[in-house]
Queue: 3 jobs
Job 1
Amino acid sequence: MARILAALTLFAVIAYGVWPYYTIFRLDTALGEPDPESIAPFIDLVSIQEHYKQGLGAAVDDLVPRDQRDGEPLMDWLADGLQRLGDSALEQAVTVELVRGLLREAAARATDRRPAYFMAGIQRAFFTSWNRFSIRLGHLDRQTLVVMTLSTSGWRVTEIRRPGPVYRLSR
C-alpha cells in the first residue's frame, strides 16, 4: 500500500511540474491560430490590465509628484483626472488582440526562426513559487518576461514585462 501511495504522489508531483509546460505548448498552438480569441483561455486579461495600471499610476506620480502638490486642490484634481483617464484608456487598449500581438512580437524578437513560434523564443522557463511560473523570451538585453499564475481554470498569463519603456502599448 505504501508503494502505491508513493507512486501516486510521485506521479502527482511530476504531473504538476509538467502542467505549465503543457500550457505553454497549448498557448503556442493558440498563437498560431488566425482567431485572436483562441488565446483567451490562456490569459487573465484583468490581471494584465492591472499590471499596466500600476505602471501608469507610477508614471502619473512621476509626472505630478505628491510631494510637489503641497495640498493644492488643482494639482490633486489634475493627478486624479490623469489617473482616471489612463485607467479607462487602458481598459480599452489592453485587449486580447493586443496581448496576442505582444506575445507574437516577443517571440519574433527572441528567435530568428520563421515563423516565430513562442516556444522557439524561450530561453528559460521556471517556477518562481508553487503558483507562479516565469518564461523568459529572448536574451537579457532584449528579453520579455511572461508570468503565468495558477488559477482555478489552470495556468494563465497574468503579466508581460517588455524591454525598454515598460508601459508602451503599441501594437
Job 2
Amino acid sequence: MSWMAWTWPTAAFFCSIFAALITMTLVELRWPTVPRKGWLPLVTTRGDRFFISLLGSAFIHILWLAVTDVHVLVASVLSLVYALLVMSRG
C-alpha cells in the first residue's frame, strides 16, 4: 500500500464508511427495509437514503472547501446533520 500516502484522517474516513456499510447490511438482515416516500421526490429504501446522504455530504465538503477558509470540521458537522435528516425524514 505504499503507492498511496495514507493519513490517519483518510484511514478513519474509509474505515467509517466500511463500518457503516457493515452496519447497514446487518440492520437490513434483521429488519428488512420498506420502501417509503418522505420529503425526497422519489420512493427510497434505507440504502438509497444512505447513498443520497453520502453524495450530499461529499458535495457539502466540496462546496465548503471551494467557498470558505473555515475549518472543514464545520462541514463535517453540517454533513452529519444532513445525513441524519435524510436518513430519518427522506
Job 3
Amino acid sequence: MQDFFEALRSESKNTALPDEFNYFGKLIGSWAIDYIEDNTSLAIKGEWHFSWVLEGMAIQDVIILPDYEYGSSLRIYNPDTHAWDVAYGYTGKIIRLEAKKQDNMIMLTFINDERRKWIFTNIQDNHFHWENITVKDDGEWYINAEIYAERIK
C-alpha cells in the first residue's frame, strides 16, 4: 500500500501551476482546528491535513472531526479556467465546488447552488479561518459553520 501513497503524494507544487493561482499552497501541512456550527452551537476539536498530490497540480486534504465527520477534498488546478475544481466527499455525500480568489479570500462556490460558499480567509503562516456560508436573498451572508485553524506541522 505504501506505493499508492508515494504515487499520490508530491513533494511540492508543479512548476506548470502559475504562482498567482497557487491559492491553497499556504495550507500545506497539518492544522489543529476548532469547528463551530452556528445554528446548533456544536463545537468540535479536530485536525485538518493538506498535501500536494498528482504531480503537484492538485492538493488533497483530510479533515477529521471525531465522532462527527471524516472527509476529504481533492482540489485540482484547471489551466483552462484558471480556477480550482474541487470535490469534497464524506460518507454518503460528494459536493462539487469551484475555487477562485476574490480580494484576500479564496471563494469556493457550490456548482449546483451559487448561494452556498466555503470561504478561506486570513490565511497566514500559522493560522487561517474558514466559513461555510449561505448568501441570503438580500445579499447578506449567513454563517452555517466556521473553522479556526492553528498550524501544528
